[in-house]
Amino acid sequence: MNVAVIICDSFGRHDREGSYGVTITIAGIRHLEQPDQRDLLGNPARPEIALVDELASAASSMMGQADERRPVVVIRGVPYTGDESASIGRLIPSAR
Q1: pTM
Q2: Would you say domain 5-95 falls under CATH 3.30.1330.100?
Q3: How far is CA 4 from the centre of its chain?
Q4: Under a CB-based contact definition with an 8 Å cutoff, are residues 75 and 46 in contact?
């Protein structure tokens, strides 16, 4: 069984109220998914999906933001691209 790890934390933005989960580091999972797909009109599309942040946000909502005491969430059944040399720095333009 392949296992990926996403470590996340709560972030906020100056132009938006509230907080949300964001990935701060990863292991075993690619930083960005780029599936070959087609749009609704059948044209080729190559979206760039920050799946690690989407999963971090989902996990964050389950872990809570205060005293819920859920430090770990296990997510199963999500297809992802494994990457043994994964780096969150690849997802952050200023870190390149």
Answers
A1: 0.83
A2: yes
A3: 11
A4: no
